[in-house]
Write a structure and sequence with these properties.
9 helices, alpha/beta, six-stranded mixed sheet, 6 strands
């Protein structure tokens, strides 16, 4: 049994190393590690927003935010600059993951989480939700798409300081943004244009400390996926018991080892 376990670990480790070798910044797992670094986020935002003096003061990767109903959104990168402006950076290889309503939801949940009760609306910070997409989801062949609210009748900006930006990584020209998108598609840091990004990518791909950190992250992701699958199976089983109607909610909680609050929620959801 122990030999089998060691062999499985060795195989997973080899798979992780190969996966790491092929990682690009367009892979969200890798992006979130690389862009935990403030200077990398600063470079990215300065290029996309054309603000050379932008100064990032705070960065969080895989940042969870919840709405009033308890539904959470996990943001790839959440950042704040020196003026208090808020930034959410998402990388999406799938078109479905970058649909307009996803951007709208991220924007709304950020607003709900960065305000405190009693705050004046005028103090709501300017926010930017930025999707970097592998495909040209807007299908107009442009490198950037800026989405802002307008007053339909006048054509004037609504000026709510809420912005959504789509970055098309397909455009890899000689502009600063095109060179950045080239770097997002690279697996080899030696081929990258921007030294800050290349050094950070090289750290996670070639240094002992960086490779260890990435392998630990991949192992944690596997464990999290397994836990989510177990919890989903338990919830499905609990729902079947609720529908059958032969056990009390307390008994179902004991059988499935789920919190009683979760059982009550499942029972309430079933009746809606």
């Amino acid at each position: 049994m122990e030999i089998t376990s060691e062999f499985q670990y060795s195989q997973k480790h080899k798979e992780d190393l190969q996966r790491l070798k092929n990682f690009r910044l367009l892979d969200d797992d890798f992006l979130t590690k690389v862009f935990e670094d403030i200077e990398c986020v600063e470079l990215l935002l300065r290029i996309i927003l054309k603000k050379d003096n932008l100064k990032v003061t705070e960065v969080h990767s895989q940042h969870n935010m919840k709405n009033l109903q308890g539904r959470s959104a996990r943001l790839d990168i959440f950042a704040v600059d020196s003026t208090g402006d808020i930034f959410n950076i998402e990388v999406q290889r799938s078109n479905q993951g970058a649909i307009p309503r996803r951007a709208r939801y991220n924007s709304s949940i950020i607003d709900a989480n960065v305000t405190e009760p009693g705050n004046e609306y005028e103090k709501l910070p300017e926010s930017f939700v930025i999707f970097i997409t592998e495909n040209d989801v807007m299908k107009a062949g442009l490198p950037l798409y800026h989405i802002d609210r307008f007053v339909t009748e006048t054509g004037h900006l609504f000026n709510d300081d809420s912005h959504i930006i789509y970055v098309n990584s397909q455009v890899k020209d000689e502009t600063t943004l095109g060179k950045l998108m080239h770097d997002f598609s690279c697996t080899d840091p030696s081929d990258m244009n921007y030294k800050i990004l290349a050094d950070r990518v090289r750290f996670f791909k070639e240094s002992k400390e960086g490779v260890l950190a990435m392998c630990q992250m991949l192992e944690e992701m596997r464990n999290e996926t397994a836990l989510e699958a177990t919890q989903k199976a338990a919830k499905n089983f609990a729902l079947r018991l609720i529908i059958r109607g032969k056990d009390s909610l307390e008994e179902i909680a004991e059988i499935t080892e789920l919190p009683l609050d979760e059982i009550h929620h499942l029972e309430k959801t079933r009746r809606i």
